[in-house]
Amino acid sequence: MRKAEQINEQSKWYELTPGCEIYEPGTARLTNTGEWRTQTPTFLADRCKQCLLCVPYCPDSAILIQDGRPDFDFDHCKGCGICAKVCPFGAITFHKEAHDHG
Ligand code: SF4
Ligand code: SF4
């Protein structure tokens, strides 16, 4: 079976895996999955208490810990909004992307 790293925008349809299935773990680092996002969280640093509750809730590991809690990893945030729901201090707002016409 073809590995995910061998599939790209130049791949022909017959080179894709059946059902576009992926057979190995850890492939998100190869892909800018943040492009799928239609809504975006905004981090309000002045409200953040650095409790880090939002970190384990993010299904895409898009909230990094580097000298505390920095801004989101927008290359991988898919805009699910879970972080905005779980933040107890209102430090994350959520809004539609400017290019979303839906
Ligand atoms: S849950 Fe809210 S207050 Fe806690 S680290 Fe995340 S953004 Fe900051
Ligand atoms: S919107 Fe979803 S994917 Fe993006 S940082 Fe928040 S929890 Fe993670």
Structure description:
It is a single chain. With 102 residues, the chain is mostly loops. The chain has two domains: 1-31, no CATH class; 38-97, Alpha-Beta Plaits. It is 9% helix and 10% strand. The protein contains two helices and two strands; from the N terminus they run βααβ. It has helices at residues 54-57, 82-86, and strands spanning 39-43, 92-96. The chain has a two-stranded antiparallel sheet. It starts with 38 loop residues before the first strand and ends in a 6-residue tail after the last strand. The mean pLDDT is 88. It binds iron/sulfur cluster (2 copies). One iron/sulfur cluster (SF4) binds next to loops.
In short:
This protein has 102 residues and is low in regular secondary structure. The chain is built from two helices and two strands.
